[in-house]
Amino acid sequence: MITRRGMIGGAATAMASARRLKAANAPLDIVVIGGGIAGAAAASQLSAQGHQVVMLEARSRLGGRINTDRSFAMPIDLGASWIHGPSQANPLVALAAKAGLTTAVTPDDLVQVYAATGAPLPYSVVDPKEATYDRLTNRARSTAARTGRDMSFQQAMTAQQGTLFNDPVMRYFGAAWTEFDTGAPLDQLSALQGMEDEEFGGSDVIVTNGYDRLFQPLVNGYEIRMGSPVKAISQTESDITVEYPGGTITADAAVLTAPLGVLKAGSIQFSPGLASTKLAAINRVGFGTVNKVVLEFTRATWPAGMQYFGFCRAVGAAGRACYAMNVKRLRAHFKYLGCHIHSALSNWRIQRVGI
Fold it and tell me: Do residues 176 and 116 share a domain?
């Protein structure tokens, strides 16, 4: 199976081979398409090596899926929030330290789960079911890895226990643990490749002073053109031409880090066209939607020491506001509600609500 990260890694280098004739080791003119973390990292490294780099970003901000809202009492990350597996082997750890990111562990065991009636469920009920869900999850993944036979995560789980998700607590675990964590519904998530965030060890930590700080060391030393969506990329044996509303750029090489959705929509025209293997990967790899709702209060009326509050939902609504995260435990006077919204609701308008 082709993973999303592997596919994008291939796409990022797909247009990087054309070069005009230059002296050996001479600096290259390189255009980087996309101002997310991949594009910024590439542009920063290439610029540090002496190449002339221009970055084209379609939006009016950098960051891609890193998007910090600083209008609240503390920075709130609408996109990337955690560093999963913050061991020294994780390349984000060194980058985060260089950027001055502060983090805090968010203990998964500090959670109170509530029934659909609003009644708190005792740990004597929740804990055994948590152990069962964890055991079935590990078995589903190990079976898929051993056999190489892929199926949806939901199929892999119900193959072991057919009525598993008839239990509202199990539906909660599926929504809060798996769907929210991966941004994908259980029936679309790969049992073989669906949990890529567990590659590194260590307890997951959340960034407390804004993930956007990660970009500060990466956006110096090269030109950045915002509001510049790329429309076409043409490659010859000697150079690459990139077209965008502001004009064209001719370069020795290009690094493409456009979002998967842009590639799926065919918003960029390639000449010559992409290889069939890359087109197949773009069509096959999916991505989901996670929406976060932020509520700010003048005083806390909930247990300040509790990290999470989980909510059991009816069949078909398991992912709607499946849990809340208490940020007051990290900083005062704040509560942060995170929820997985199914794709049917992904086009809801986001509005600011005063309470």
Answer: yes
Residues spanned by the domain of 228: 4-62+219-284
Tell me the residue type at 210.
G
Please name the helix (run of DSSP H) or strand (run of DSSP E) that holds residue 129, with its range, or none: helix 123-147
Tell me the average pLDDT of the chain: 84
Q: What gap in Å lies between CA 192 and CA 351, rounded to an integer?
A: 37
> Please, what's the b/e burial string for 250-259 (b: 16 or more CB within 10 A of its CB; e: otherwise)?
ebbbbbbbbb
Structure token pair of residue 149:
């036979």
Cα gap 291→288, rounded to integer Å: 10
Does the CA dihedral 240-218-39-89 come out positive or negative? positive
Tens of pLDDT, residue by residue over 80-138, are: 999 988 999 998 999 899 999 999 999 988 999 999 899 999 999 999 999 999 999 99
Q: Please tell me the total count of domains within the chain.
A: 2
Contacts 24+ apart (CB under 8 A), 328-332: 328/300, 328/302, 328/304, 329/110, 329/304, 329/305, 330/74, 330/104, 330/206, 330/208, 331/73, 331/74, 331/208
The 10s digit of each residue's pLDDT in 260-274 is 999 999 999 999 999
- Report residues of the chain scoring pLDDT below 50: 1-16, 332-355
State how far the Cα of 313 lies from the Cα of 308, in Å rounded to an integer: 16
CATH code of the domain covering residue 307: 3.90.660.10
Residues 186 and 228 in one domain: no
Which of helix, strand or coil describes residue 103? Answer: strand
CA 65 to chain centre: 6
- My answer on whether 294 and 182 are in the same domain is yes
Smallest CA-to-CA distance from 278 within 18, 56, 14, 1 is with 14
